[in-house]
Amino acid sequence: MQLARACSILSGYTARTRLDEAASGGIPAIQLRDLPSSGELNLSRLTRVQLDDVQDRHLVHTGDVLFRSRGDRNTAATIGPDLSEGAVAVLPLMILRPKPDIVSAEYLAWVINHPKTQRFFDSVARGTKLRMISRASLEHLELDIPDIETQRKIVAIAALADREQTLSVQAAGLRKELTSKILGDRAKRPRRPAATERTTK
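User: That's the sequence. What structure does it adopt?
Assistant: Structure tokens below.
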């Protein structure tokens, strides 16, 4: 199924100037820097900006998916319940609004981040220094979309696999730390005298 059939695709807000200045009482702005290529959206440090021409189609809410249309990797992330108010998505971020009877937000983000989809983006990306995925390429992206229950199972298993990998890395770090401590303690032990040094005249 093509992506355009599974969700609405909306362009982010076009900023005419840099959005670096925090504005008291302004609207939170989600920029490319807030969605790194790892696909982990950081909502804790959003800049608030005063914008007069923001339209509803620029606003993201819980259940939407944000897509990085530019950058070394073109990944996606879901908007979870941590976002307590509407926020404006700034280009080159794009908003994917899933049709709930077809695809869940979590599955949509997962399948976009899948290596198979990322290889497709590699084949259609434009630009050399700063690659870009066009809206047309995104609309025509072919995705495998099973029924909703299967989607939930896939997302749950993928989350468990990610958790297992995280724990494995943590366990390896702890083993290395423990080994270093044991070896360090062993190195501090007094050197045993050689047999010749123990012999008295």
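The mean pLDDT is 86.
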